[in-house]
Design goal:
about 290 residues, alpha+beta, TATA-Binding Protein, Endonuclease III, domain 1, five-stranded antiparallel β-sheet, two-stranded antiparallel ribbon, 14 helices, globular, DNA-(apurinic or apyrimidinic site) lyase, EC 4.2.99.18, DNA damage, oxidized purine nucleobase lesion DNA N-glycosylase activity
């Protein structure tokens, strides 16, 4: 397959983006190269320099799919430049995280993924998501010696059967897997899928809402609390002003800022600032 060389107007760092806690289907296959599974396809992204990557696709596919996915038109370096120079921690975090971009991911996939994410670390989330795709998603092909499946559609998700939830069989065991590792999250996923199936235009409706209304609607899904709603809004609906607070962000706020951090000072890009804080805090073990 041909390779498209994408030169962005500002920084992009694939490794940092992959490790920033927003996406769970990026796999580093060799240094600087990531196998990205999204939108029912698999592509390889390779870092060339701080502003340039290659993708094994043509120009048309890049312009219609991956340019938006990478949020190529947003100036992230400009956001870093607006960090308060008197805030030494955030100044360091912004520079350390330079190149992170908030991906424009599929809203359904992001909602389900962050429901799964509750009380799980990143490796466990990745494992659960891959199991879900194998149990219910469509087979894409074999890559790097692995069978890769697309994230399930709503209809495919509705076909998931769990004996612990009253199903006749276990979809995971039928797919050759030992278990789903979802526990109490499985009923949340099933109820979310059922609601969306009964309201086929709901995702599109959510996309049209303002931030406050979107947040309230997301909280209406079973198992979605403040953190999951914030993460879904930020990473699934690309609302860059949402500021999710997880254990790492709470630790930074408590230990660095004395328990209070005014994220509104960075509106409308508070979510971008959150990513720099998360990535720096987690990487440095704060």
């Amino acid at each position: 397959m041909e390779k498209y060389i994408a030169k962005l107007g500002d920084s992009i760092d694939l490794k940092k983006t992959a490790d920033s806690g927003q996406c769970f289907r990026w796999k580093e296959t060799e240094e600087g190269t990531f196998r990205v599974t999204a939108f029912d396809r698999v592509r390889y992204f390779t870092q060339i320099d701080s502003h340039t990557i290659s993708i094994d696709c043509g120009k048309d596919e890049y312009n219609t799919v991956w340019k938006s996915y990478l949020d190529a038109d947003t100036n992230y370096d400009g956001i870093i430049a607006k960090i308060d120079p008197h805030d030494s921690f955030l100044t360091k975090a912004g520079e350390f995280g330079r190149g992170i971009r908030i991906l424009r991911q599929d809203p359904l996939e992001t909602l389900i993924t962050f429901i799964i994410s509750q009380r799980k670390n990143i490796p466990a989330i990745k494992s659960c998501v891959e199991k879900l795709c194998q149990a219910a998603g469509s087979f894409i092909g074999e890559f790097d010696g692995e069978q890769v499946f697309a994230f399930p559609s709503l209809v495919e998700l509705s076909g998931l059967s769990c004996q612990k939830c009253g199903g006749e069989f276990c979809s995971y065991k039928k797919a050759g897997l030992d278990s789903c590792s979802l526990g109490y999250r499985m009923p949340y996923i099933q109820e979310t899928v059922s609601r969306l199936l009964m309201n086929p235009d709901l995702i599109e409706y959510l996309c049209q809402l303002d931030d406050e209304a979107l947040y309230e609607e997301l909280l209406g899904f079973k198992g979605v609390g403040k953190k999951v709603a914030n993460c879904t809004a930020l990473f699934g609906f690309h609302r860059l002003d949402f500021f999710p607070i997880d254990v790492w962000i709470k630790r930074v706020i408590d230990e660095v800022y004395g328990g209070t951090f005014d994220d509104r000072q960075y509106s409308p890009y508070a979510g971008v600032i959150q990513q720099y804080m998360f990535y720096y805090g987690r990487s440095k073990g704060i």
